């Protein structure tokens, strides 16, 4: 079956059986499942951490410890931003729709993959950077400039580097090949139409 027949069959179906004709290969479907699982875990961690830093901020303000309280509030904002950002980018993942032209679906799939890749490339700005700086600042502001604070800051820097390296590897290994595969499908369809 060529792409034109596939598209026509896809658009001709009007019932739930249309979902059997999935244009998303298994590898990309697994990738989206991993994205949803990652986002769920990140959201759960944020939900568990928010009360801790909220309580810490409140107690620090009550104790008049303004610098650590500001770091705790900054951490609250950074932690709350993470699930929102993940949700916002995840909203672009298209669901197969038999009424939608195949080419439109593939373009939406490509945009969703690009959005995930761009988000992972920029984690230093919106995720690991603010959280790592906030955690190091929180610890140092509570304990002062000690050897323990320096070691903690170095540990946080190592975690930051690990997150950055891991996310860039995920883009190279998972998202770039998926984008190339969708580009190939789009190119084939455009040539045939």
Overall description:
This protein is mostly helical and 193 residues long. It is built from seven helices and no strands. Helix 2 packs antiparallel against helix 3, helix 3 runs antiparallel to helix 6 and helix 6 packs antiparallel against helix 7. The longest helix is centred in the C-terminal third of the chain and has 46 residues. It starts with a helix and ends with a helix.
Which characteristics define this entry?
mainly alpha; 193 residues; elongated
Brief rundown of the structure:
The protein has 7 helices and no strands. It is mainly alpha-helical.
SSE series? HHHHHHH
Ends: how far apart?
15 Å
SSE-based structural type:
mainly alpha
Count, helices: 7
Query: How helical, in percent, are the residues?
Result: over 70%
